[in-house]
# Entry
Amino acid sequence: MTGEARKITERDEKYLLRRGVAEIIVEDEMRGLLRSGKKLRLKEGFDPSFPDIHLGHMVSLRKLRQFQELGHQVVLIVADWTARIGDPSGASATRPMLTEAQVRANAQTYMEQFFKIVDKAKTEVRWQSEWFDKFTLTEVLQLTSKFTVAQFLAREDFNARYSDGRPIALIEFMYPLLQAYDSVAIEADVEFGGTDQKFNFLVGRELQSMMGQPPQQCFMTPLLVGTDGSQKMSKSLGNYIGVTEPPDSIYGKTMSIRDDLIIQYFELVTDVPDAELAEFRQALADNAVNPMELKKRLARELVTQLYDKRSADDAQRNFERIHQKGEIPEDIELGTKSGSILQDYLVANRLAKSKSEARRLIEQGAVYINGKKVMDANYIFPKDTIIRVGKRRFIKST
# Structure
């Protein structure tokens, strides 16, 4: 639990506590810990019900990496115990009940993505089941006795549901308590996550104080707006950029973001210096730069960070060939045999999830055959046909 971190400079401290940060509770205490030289235990928990990581998650994960580079210890909590319980009430669609095998598989997928951003060698992985499998009913009741229903109804979503007369299952009150106990179990100094986790972080802070530990600091990062330009990035909304997507997909999706989000993306998910960002901001305000050029820089930064420079070069070359010169990709995927009806072919090659979705794409004019829009779902085509769906999905029939 002990050890020392690298002494922090004033410049490091400013960058660490300002860039890509929404709120810190309590900031003065956080500064004191950083200046003390103590090796801090940095808690990041995840629900293995949903193992995929996108750029929205990267905001806090990049902060973890920055702390690691100063010598601090990341502790990754796998919420395997609560994932196996799920939400039997059915009141929440976000907590399906999982088997132990499903939890392990999801956790493995998550960690493969997590360690694309956070240093694996400087991360301690802990499973909730280490402590909760040993919990007795007495310990559960003792935990619940430390907080009141009124305190939990102060949480925004609980309060809204209670006011509307919508049900709240008792088990839902347990999740913040269990997450808080995770902080006690690992003796967390700081807990990281988005602003939507504020209530849970504060419960952890209070529980630690009740149990004789120094209260953790709550380090909250902004919620990244998704590619739709309006809501937070989310896989369920389809407005996300996944960290393990192919380089061409990451590059292309980045190029599709709204111009007014360029600076936010640079600030939250790249290492481009603040001084340079100030120049970008001014250039955009003065109409002195084409936003597309800044998006290309942003897309390159992201692909390089998640893959490497060569992948970024190839992704940019492919984007320019396809979208600016109207050409097709060099490494186009080969599909199944030709002679099929178009809507069936899209489904067989995973370009559409169902026949109804395939028909909708075709009728909306999103499908092209050899560069020409086709709006007949029953169209039959020969071999060596290039099919494009949307802007970035290509396949060649064989």
The domain at 247-324 is CATH 1.10.240.10 (Tyrosyl-Transfer RNA Synthetase).
